[in-house]
Specification:
20 helices; 6 strands; metal-binding
Length: 486
């Protein structure tokens, strides 16, 4: 364990009052990952504004992602999540995603990334930038994977400044791109490798699979592996919720130890690519691009790809209507019904998990041993992994509602297993009455119940945004990474 890892672990332990629980999982044995060296021949122009004149329609579509402004707090909307993520940064701040235009702004402002006042300060590793900017593949090409991943998030502030854009999907410095051809490319080596594991090698794929795989730059499940904190996809066994869970269990990976239950937890990211592949659209070759970036006709009569990346219903005649013969209103009603069904089951699972975490806390306080708790904590881990897999994804109710409902159903099974085991442990230690769950009806109450000083977090972030972020932008402009300030 290197010094940085020790410091991060100690900081988390002190900040959350959590002790790392041994013997509930196998010792973490990371699967060795390749580490690509620098590749100076790979040229990436990460500034999106430089392509405005050459591709005005596509650029304007991309710029219109700024119209997706909803940034509602899930913590306030559903305070249960504060308990579910207790001890993890998501408990402090988790917001619904908005347009790609805001990718840099949002990762700077979210409380999860902390308030590093120096380049070496934590708490987050460089990997937390990885989905946010075409500056990331540029830096990986310049420094190699070890040079990129082996740093803190704060050290990347003046280098990673352009939000998700052109060079994330296109070879923007190529002759083909200059001639107006798509020149599709994945420049992140940690994305290319796992695609090969599932027989989707990008270089050999047809245009349909390539277009879909571009979204796997970011819309996937991943974790930060080893001391390097290298972005890694858990696809060695496959892409289903069970296959990825087995991968994590086999290597003993733990994202964090839960502050209440001390369960060894997994945090799902956003497994949209995997869910899409398993669902009806993926099985029928209907890609993310077909639904979210359709071909449209401009006022000049020319057809181009809409880069606004919006809700398919906003361009119904160019998206859903290509396959579905229902009216827009009928299809929206069907989708709304499926979303409600999934949400109802999801909330039932949340309630079970909240109760399980507090019951586990009560069992520890009553004197339960690690061996007595082991099976219950593993069941909590597996149940919440299924909830998180379903909740963290975008559009699962459209992409694969049958898959999501099955995942949630098996999550309820595992939550029931956990609570049954906890009842026995509690009874063994003299507790036969139901464990009371404190009032978590508001985010403030939930933060209090889980030991979060949210105002302290907000004050630190405000100071960071006031003093450090302007320095980052100033340095980026001096390097030519951003256009001159107007």
């Amino acid at each position: 364990m290197n010094v940085l890892k020790k410091r991060l672990l100690l900081a988390a332990t002190v900040a959350w009052g959590v002790s790392v629980l041994p013997n509930t999982m196998a010792e973490y044995k990371p699967i060795e990952q390749p580490v690509e060296p620098a590749n100076p021949s790979l040229k990436i122009e990460s500034r999106n504004d430089l392509f405005k004149e050459q591709f005005p329609k596509q650029y304007q579509g991309w710029a219109d992602t700024s119209k997706s402004t909803d940034l509602d707090s899930v913590n306030y909307e559903d305070p249960r999540v504060v308990v579910l993520w207790a001890g993890y940064a998501f408990a402090k701040d988790y917001k619904k995603p908005r347009g790609h235009f805001y990718a840099i702004t949002d990762v700077r402002e979210i409380l999860r990334t902390g308030a590093p006042m120096t380049p070496d300060a934590g708490p987050m590793p460089m990997a937390c930038w990885t989905c946010k900017s075409p500056d990331v593949p540029r830096l990986i090409a310049e420094r190699g994977e070890a040079g990129y991943f082996g740093a803190t998030w704060g050290s990347g502030g003046s280098e990673i400044v352009n939000p998700i854009g052109c060079a994330d999907c296109h070879d923007t410095t190529s002759k083909d791109f200059a001639e107006g051809k798509p020149a599709l490319r994945i420049a992140r080596p940690h994305v290319l490798r796992p695609l090969e594991k599932i027989n989707k090698k990008f270089a050999d794929a047809d245009r349909t699979d390539q277009r879909a795989a571009l979204c796997a730059n970011c819309h996937v499940e991943y974790y930060f592996a080893g001391d390097l904190k290298q972005v890694t996809f858990p696809w060695d066994n496959g892409i289903s919720v069970d296959e990825m869970e087995k991968y994590y269990d086999d290597i003993g990976f733990v994202d964090w130890t839960h502050a209440l239950s001390k369960a060894p937890m997994l945090k799902a990211q956003h497994p949209d690519y995997e869910t899409w592949m398993l669902g009806v659209h993926g099985k029928n070759g209907v890609t993310c691009i077909d639904c979210h970036m359709p071909k449209v006709q401009g006022v000049d009569g020319k057809v181009y790809t809409d880069h606004q990346i919006g809700n398919p219903f906003n361009a119904f005649e160019h998206t859903c209507a290509n396959c579905h013969d229902q009216s827009k209103e009928k299809l929206k009603d069907i989708v709304k019904s499926r979303k409600k069904e999934i949400k109802d089951v999801m909330l039932r699972l949340e309630d079970q998990l909240v109760a399980a975490h507090f019951e586990a806390k009560a069992a520890w306080e009553a004197g339960a041993t690690k061996e007595e708790m082991k099976d219950a904590l593993q069941a909590i881990r597996h149940a919440q992994w299924r909830w998180d897999y379903s909740a963290a994804g975008h559009g699962g109710h459209i992409h694969a509602p049958d898959v999501i409902l099955k995942v949630l159903g098996t999550g309820l099974d595992r939550a029931s297993d956990a609570r049954t085991q906890l009842v026995r442990v509690l009874a063994k230690h003299g507790i036969t009455e139901p464990v009371k769950v404190p009032d978590i009806s508001t985010a403030e109450n939930a933060w209090k119940a889980t030991g979060v000083d949210i105002e302290k977090e907000r004050r630190a972030k405000a100071e960071f945004l006031k003093t450090i972020v302007p320095q980052w932008d100033k340095e980026a402009r001096e390097k030519g990474l951003l256009p001159p300030e107007k």
